[in-house]
Amino acid sequence: xxxxxxxxxxxxxxxxxxxxxxxxxxxxxxxxxxxxxxxxxxxxxxxxxxxxxxxxxxxxxxxxxxxxxxxxxxxxxxxxxxxxxxxxxxxxxxxxxxxxxxxxxxxxxxxxxxxxxxxxxxxxxxxxxxxxxxxxxxxxxxxxxxxxxxxxxxxxxxxxxxxxxxxxxxxxxxxxxxxxxxxxxxxxxxxxxxxxxxxxxxxxxxxxxxxxxxxxxxxxxxxxxxxxxxxxxxxxxxxxxxxxxxxxxxxxxxxxxxxxxxxxxxxxxxxxxxxxxxxxxxxxxxxxxxxxxxxxxx
Length: 298
What we know:
Layout: E1 4-8, H1 13-24, E2 28-33, H2 39-47, E3 51-54, H3 60-67, E4 72-75, H4 81-98, E5 102-104, H5 121-134, E6 139-140, E7 142-144, E8 147-148, E9 165-168, E10 177-180, H6 182-193, E11 201-203, E12 207-209, H7 211-222, E13 227-230, H8 234-247, H9 258-270, H10 289-294
Parallel strand pairs: 1-2, 1-4, 2-3, 4-5, 5-6, 7-11, 8-10, 9-13
Antiparallel strand pairs: 10-12
Helix pairs in contact: 1-6, 3-4, 4-5, 8-9
């Protein structure tokens, strides 16, 4: 019997790439999308062979029908509480009712289990859903990919191509940060969705790189080594973030307010993967730091 994988968030970049990888693996792919989703994105999914179900997430009958005969649910949803907690919980409830055996939640990020509450708002929402799925009878697998590699092309302090500087925090110049490309994450997620023996957590990274490594790499990519800058202690940085968050309450309704972006940077230097599970699927290849920095964004 052909595996049917249900993908939520399939109109997003990661979700679409996961669908492509699953189809390449010979799986049946079903995507649930809202009526207000971009028709062009919905058609693009249908064009590659995805069975698209337009549903109302607030209608249990829609969700139950979408989950029928599904072997694994993959959530690539992005959003705030209404999505990460509420919508995923609705999907989980339907999955449990029809007996879907496995669920991969939208935990494509740093391993938030190593972080205390309050240091990353978006991670705290994932922790809230983690509690719900852990209390259920479904077999859950979170795939932690660190940071998406494309953020290095955004001119963030960690790799500022305009000012040709690389920021690090006190004592963290050689700290290895986990980065994974969207394509590598999608390929691994597809393999995991078709693997009934996955553990609760999997850790992956296309590459692990430090501020010092980036400085060395910048010379070969740009002809000169970027300057390393010590931005003080992580404790000082966290205090700055908290102050900005308190001064910007309207940011609580935004997915990526400036202080949330700073929280992601803090997390990169606060925790990293204890080990990598890259070798679990030997057929996969991994993007190098040099190639990732030179790739055009999808």
